[in-house]
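Standup notes
- HV: blocked on the assembly model, inputs below
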Amino acid sequence: MSALAGFLDRYQERESLLHRLDARAKLPAALGFIVAVTFTREGEWLTLALLFAPIPLLVALSRLGAALVLRRSLLALPFVATAIPLVFTRPGDPVFELPLTGWTASAEGIRAVATIMARAWIAVLTAVILVATTPAVELLRALRSLRVPALLISTISFAYRYLYVVGDEAQRMIRARDSRSATIPGARAGRSVAWRAGVAGRMVGSLFVRSLERSERVYAAMQARGYHGELRFLHNPPLPRTDLALGAALVAYGALVQAAAYLR
Amino acid sequence: MKTNGATPGIERLAASGMAALEVDDLRFAYPDGTPSLRGVSFRVAPGEKVALVGPNGAGKSTLLLNLNGILRAHGGTVRVFGEELSERSAPLIRARVGLLFSNPDDQLFSATVLEDVAYGPLHMGLPEDEVLARSREALRAVGMAGFEDRVPHRLSLGQKRRVAIATVLSMGTPILALDEPTASLDPRSRRELIELLDRLPLTILVATHDLGMVSDVLPRTILMDAGLAIADGQSRLILNDAVTLGAHGLEPLSAHGHPHA
Amino acid sequence: MTPSFATGIAAGAGLAPGPALHIPDGFVSAPVAAAGWVATVAVVALSVRVANRRLEERAVPLMGVMAAFIFAAQMMNFPVAGGTSGHLLGGALAVVLLGPWAAIVVMTAVVGLQALLFQDGGLAALGANVLNMGIVTIAVGWAVYRIPRLVARDSRPVLLGAAFVAGWISVEAGAIATAFMLALSGTSPLNVVLPAMVGVHALIGIGEGLITAAAIAFVLSTRPDLIPGAAPTRA
């Protein structure tokens, strides 16, 4: 097993309804639902609550456990920092003043940031559930049903396959470097930032040469098996109607909630 | 090979009875939960040369990565010349335990041999003239003097392995831990590397499947399997114990002959 | 309030671990996300076609392994100070090594994989993220890399200098594009997020430039045949 797999893989093996659903239904459903969430306007709390409502149901159906989904959903949290300034810059009714600074927070600002955070959180939760219940190869296969150009899908599939090979190589190089990055008493270790960046750059250069040579070997091996630039895929089994219906139901629900919000 | 000033001489340490390396109940699991080390303990005296043998997946490489803090153990302790390994002491420990990775290409990232051998001492903040002196001396010690300006990727595997050893020797580390140093080498390169290990006046720990090398230059063997140290003793006794070896996926030397006798 | 304080907060996002330009879902408004998709689909479709024609049969294995390489190269960190570390975004490096069309396909694969499999950046926001990190950085990096070479003869210092500046400016360009998208979405006031993004990425960009130039220097000394414009002799 690739040493990186333990760090990178997001799929969680379980026996559940969501795991069994076809990726060709799940991926468009998650994407459609996230798009619906993106449309939420500031301060539409009821809409946000209604859009959040399916999430606990999906978590229960997936048997992933709330703790795992919650923990992973915090990934996007640091990005909130880009929105926080709105609390103080949006004009409106003053709510509180930040001590020592003289900056006042406005109710409108708080409302805007809260909406952004809620939107982001519901979207991330949806994506976390999708990725934890669907093996990566099936997600990549589902891209084909979304009409992504075949060359791009093949490139992405190759990238996924060799990510672990090249990534392991990178990780071994980093370990070998760190292992020689020693400190002795009485001397300042590590020299300058520029020197360290240069070392990282040489490692990147060396990784590039090795990756390029690897791609040449991969190409030769493909040719040896009869490859002439045309990529063939195994034919996909038909998409079960019930899976399609369940996926469509989620998207329809999101669209309906938004339609109600915009028409109100 | 001169060790750096911060490390006491091997002879004096041996006399004082202090261990070069002391591993106590070391435990480690990978992030996906697979346990890799399940409580390993042993002691290595200064100047000792020890083999780590065992089947693939026994935990040998993981153990080596734990010796200088590249991986952080989840339990137990590692002491190097009495100093306990911790997040804070890891950079100091790395000046004492040099790790040699099985693929020398991972270790050699510079455009020339000399630059790479100079990395360790440069990082430690030594003055340039001393860095150069140490690097040249290290290359001489591994028999690669004259290759200073060569590009690493134009060297043979055996030459790369020896340069990789020089990159650690130039740091003056008193302990050398090597992962599969003879793997994929042709017989002559293998012989040269074994003789080099025999010559180096350092404390040496070698993870390997090459039992011929073990019997030639590593007097002590620790047999590992499934994250545990199964046996620890004189190589000549363990290597001839067909029952124990067979139970852990290895073959006694006599079974396949001594390939380089 | 003064922009400097808010700029500091917004800058915090840039210093957070992991690539800072991956916008999660919810931070771009629906119109901005849609515009990002339209622009991205058009440019990527063209790039796929041109790259496929130029590379022929080798296109898939070459670009696939190169995407894996950029992904792995982003792991190559170096300690900066106080526990933070710098690392590569890779757009400029990809464009110097592969040319603009293949570089766009490769970066699209990288950013797409990160969103689809690792939740680095949103799914609805993917169009915007590919535009910022896979198209703007490459277009700007390519232009910057070409300019000094139009007036000066190709030589090692010229190539390395151009690579350094291309790395630096390409990251700034990606950061500026990201800032404008956040501002257009009403997520962040422009007078705050623009200086924050530009300021933080001025530093990140120097790291990008240094790594890019050092990587090209390594390739120039070991496999100069792989760098367009370099002397065709091998070391």
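- HV (later): unblocked. The longest helix of chain C spans residues 190-222. The helical segments of chain C are 3-15, 30-55, 59-73, 91-98, 100-118, 126-151, 156-184, 190-222.
- Next: hand off to the docking folks.
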